[in-house]
Amino acid sequence: MNEQLSLYLLTIRGTLAPATLEEARKVHNQTAGAPANIAAAQSLGDVSHMAYVPMEHDGHAGPGGAGEFLIMDLWNSLEGLNNFFADPHVQEGGGMIFSDRDPVVWAPAQGFAGFHIPDPYGKNDRIVTTVRGMLKSKDDAQKLHNTITAQTLGKARKAGMLSHEAYLRMAAPGSPEAMEFFAVDVWTSPEGMGFYEDPEFLAGFDHLFAGEAATGVWNHPAGQWSEW
């Protein structure tokens, strides 16, 4: 029997409660990254947990905390995800990491092109870019997105892009289909991201969203963070 495998993306973007990244690292590793919590999450279907901060982050305290923080988890079970985060202890741990947070569950955007390309040996840096916005029309957006992706793939790869994944926000049962779009790109270096200013790319991207989209550039925070 063939069963379709779907990986759902959980993003939690918000402001760190601790005053510095080092303090945040310790809190994260004692809560979300504690061995027992990792085992519980994995047993329920959490196959990946990654932590990111903005590229320009210097690790020091800012007004109201250590700045922005992004967690991205991949789950193979929506039921497991819901059960895990229904645990009051998990919510309490999240409150220790974030002073405010926006958790969103995304499903793979069916029909939207994506790719994963092997990286050359020695290019070990990983920079992540994200874009989030409301689509004008799903069908029109899919056609435009796929055309842009196909036409600019060669340029993107030469510039250092390794992967592109597209998602749509999970709609509540019985509600209209969600029109909010989220995409994740992975790069080997920040220099190549000038690709996003390429006229051929912008000619399509500028017509993809109903309004201004929110973008972000992220990398791994300094120090040893519990990830899997």
Give the gist of this structure.
The protein has 228 residues and is α+β, with helices and mostly antiparallel strands. The chain has helices spanning 21-30, 35-43, 78-85, 88-97, 138-159, 199-205; strands at 8-16, 46-54, 68-75, 98-108, 115-116, 127-134, 161-169, 180-187, 214-219. It has an eight-stranded antiparallel β-barrel, surrounded by four helices.
Report on the architecture of this protein.
There is one protein chain. By secondary structure, the protein is an alpha+beta fold. The chain has two domains: 8-107, Alpha-Beta Plaits; 115-218, Alpha-Beta Plaits, CATH 3.30.70.100. It has helices spanning 21-30, 35-43, 78-85, 88-97, 138-159, 199-205, and strands at 8-16, 46-54, 68-75, 98-108, 115-116, 127-134, 161-169, 180-187, 214-219. Strands 1-3-2-9-6-8-7-4 form an eight-stranded antiparallel beta barrel, surrounded by four helices. The longest helix has 22 residues, at 138-159. The chain is globular, with a radius of gyration of 18 Å. The two termini are 29 Å apart. The mean pLDDT is 92.
Number of helices: 6
Query: Largest sheet, described in full?
Result: 8 strands, antiparallel, barrel
What is the mean predicted local confidence, pLDDT?
92
Count of individual beta strands = 9
What share of the residues lie within helices? 25-40%
The topology string of helices and strands comes to EHHEEHHEEEHEEHE
Structural class: alpha+beta
Radius of gyration: 18 Å
The portion of residues forming beta strands comes to: 25-35%
Shape: globular
* Total of domains: 2
CATH fold-level topology of the largest domain: Alpha-Beta Plaits
What is the CATH-assigned architecture of the largest domain?
Answer: 2-Layer Sandwich
Low-confidence stretches: none
